[in-house]
Design goal:
Elements (H helix, E strand, L loop, with lengths): L12 E5 L3 H12 L3 E6 L7 H7 L2 E4 L4 H5 L3 E4 L11 H5 L4 E3 H6 L5 E6 L4 H14 L3 E6 L16 E6 L2 H4 L9 E4 L13 H9 L10 E5 L3 H6 L6 E6 L7 E5 L2 E6 L2 E7 L10 H14 L4 H9 L9 E6 L2 E5 L6 H8 L5 E6 L11 H6 L3 E5 L3 H8 L5 E3 L3 H10 L6 E4 L12 H24 L1
Parallel strand pairs: 1-2, 1-4, 2-3, 4-5, 6-8, 6-9, 7-8, 9-10, 10-11, 11-12, 16-20, 17-18, 17-20, 18-19
Antiparallel strand pairs: 12-13, 13-14, 15-16
Length: 460
């Protein structure tokens, strides 16, 4: 966060690259702050063109013109645009600043920032932390990589606002001064290797969440993940750890039937485990992290518990869809990497898993042990079908399906009563769908259609 008034774009030429949600929000914010803004995108058409032009945003669609970069005073990247885009080299050589949308917005925020990152669990933790803080009486705005882009929060930011921000590696790689009061690193495993050169580059991007913190700030860290401890080793902030076990001398942990905060003065109960209404034991870790954040913000145990009791989870995150024929259907379309899929698999005793989509790194063979242990079967979809079949060959039965309709029906046919059919793709969605949300909704639509047919057949 930059001191109010020290950063100005008034009268400057700014090029915003990428017209997705964050890029559009950045362009609109920059216009309101007096900049001359051009928004460029590879697509020849984007949603809301008329409204953007009416707001004063110039549009350059169908490709990126080099002149838009070289003549700019500032370049702002949407998270979907690689920070190392070669078209930016000449501008950087000329000394033109290149920053991300998260960095831009943070320079104008007046309130404190809580930033949450990790390979999995970001959305659940961000949402729940926001609910806990609101229940505790704080003025809270939640967004970033979920919901509203941070740029859309700037005009509503006040000194007493707490911004709870989900942050991805794509956003963090392009920060400069972004400084969270509380930075949360939930976990780390290989992901996004279709964008990052290797695991080390991905880890370096995630670690940047701590880079501008001082001893006045906090880092909330998963003590159960050795990678997290290594990545936060050089953070200047104070550290509060959380753990699924009762192994910490101090921190937020599970002790008996409750989440507690342990200090030298003893254990202070925060949230009873019985109040958690989420599928999957691994999601307790997200509740631990949110409780740690709320504890640092001074939220009392009663408010935390009330928030947890009212939280049934997010759409597309181990979301129960329907149950018929003794089979439960669960939508975990947000499980877009191997580790997230593994956690979903481990949440059930018996299951059929729908895996696949656009491969983005990792080893499907890492799923053999949890799948085989549960005598699970797999229905493979999308571009990664052959990779899945090869990786699981001889260890786990694999069937292929051409689309979501066929996948749901194939899975149901192979599911015995007492079994769950779980969409946990371990892949990106872009081969078949616009995003993971469209994929999840397609799954739910096919499940409900099948349920209607099954019920109709039963009545005949």
């Amino acid at each position: 966060m930059t001191p109010e008034g020290s950063f100005s774009v008034h009268g400057k030429r700014v090029t915003v690259v990428g017209a997705a949600r964050s890029g559009v929000a950045a362009a609109e914010l920059l216009v309101r702050r007096g900049a001359s803004v051009t928004l460029t995108d590879l697509r020849p058409e984007i949603t809301g063109e008329g409204a953007l032009r009416e707001a004063g945003v110039r549009l350059a669609l169908g490709g990126h013109q080099p002149g838009l970069f070289n003549r700019a005073d500032l370049i702002v990247l949407s998270p979907g645009v690689p920070f190392n885009l070669s078209l930016l080299d000449e501008a950087r050589t000329a000394g033109i600043p290149v920053i991300g949308e998260l960095e831009l917005a943070s320079r104008w925020l007046r309130g404190r920032i809580i930033a949450i990152t990790g390979t999995k669990g970001k959305s659940t933790t961000t949402t729940l932390a926001g609910r806990m803080l609101a229940a505790g009486g704080h003025r809270v705005l939640v967004g970033g990589n979920i919901g509203n882009a941070l740029s859309a929060q700037v005009d509503d930011s006040t000194e007493d606002t707490i911004h709870v921000v989900e942050t991805s590696s794509f956003q963090l790689e392009s920060i400069d001064t972004f400084r969270p009061w509380i930075a949360v690193l939930l976990n780390f495993s290989p992901d996004h290797l279709d964008r990052h050169a290797d695991v080390a580059e991905y880890a370096a991007a995630k670690s940047r969440i701590f880079v501008n913190q001082t001893a006045a700030d906090w880092a909330v860290l998963n003590a159960d993940d050795e990678s997290v401890r290594r990545m936060a080793a050089e953070a200047a902030s104070r550290k509060l750890q959380f753990s699924m076990t009762d192994s910490l001398a101090s921190g937020v942990l599970v002790q008996g039937d409750a989440i507690v905060r342990r200090t030298p003065d003893g254990d202070r109960p925060l949230v009873p485990l019985s109040s958690i209404r989420l599928l999957g034991r691994h999601l307790i870790a997200d509740v631990l992290a949110a409780s740690a954040v709320a504890s640092l913000a001074g939220v009392d145990a009663e408010a935390m518990t009330m928030a947890v009791e009212g939280f049934r989870g997010l759409e597309h995150a181990l979301e129960p869809v329907a149950e018929f024929g003794g089979v439960m259907f669960v939508n975990d379309s947000k499980a877009t990497n191997i580790e997230s899929a593994r956690r979903a698999i481990e949440s059930f005793d018996s299951l059929v898993v729908i895996l696949g989509g656009r491969y983005k790194g990792g080893d499907f063979a890492d799923l053999i042990e949890p799948l085989a242990h549960r005598h699970a079967t797999v229905v493979a979809i999308g571009e990664a079908r052959s990779l899945i079949r090869e990786a699981l060959a001889g260890a786990v039965p694999v069937q292929e399906a051409a689309d979501m309709n066929a996948a749901v029906r194939t899975a149901f046919t192979g599911a015995a009563p007492g079994t769950a059919v779980v969409l946990a793709p371990a892949c990106a969605s872009f081969d078949m769908f616009r995003d993971y949300a469209e994929r999840g909704r397609a799954f739910k639509q096919e499940v409900l259609r099948l349920e209607e047919e099954w019920s109709g057949a039963r009545e005949q």
